[in-house]
Design brief:
Residues 32-59 are annotated as: Disordered. By secondary structure, this protein is α+β, with helices and mostly antiparallel strands. It has one domain. It has one helix at 11-20, and strands at residues 2-4, 23-37, 40-54.
């Protein structure tokens, strides 16, 4: 399952949301976000996505 850090949400709040949903984060992926200014790509932020697995499957 994938969980994205929402706009205005802290990473810690996202991790808590993952735990409350019954999942355990397994991997964090950050990707840059670009906008185009004067025909050139300019970094404008980043997206953070957590891969998670069900907490029930851990033994």
């Amino acid at each position: 399952m994938k969980f994205s850090v929402e706009e205005g949400e802290s990473i810690e709040a996202c991790l808590e949301r993952i735990r409350q949903a019954g999942y355990v984060p397994t991997r964090r992926v950050e990707q840059p976000v670009f906008t185009e200014e004067n025909g050139e790509p300019v970094p404008s932020g980043r997206t953070i996505v957590f891969d998670a697995k069900s907490a029930k499957s851990e033994h």
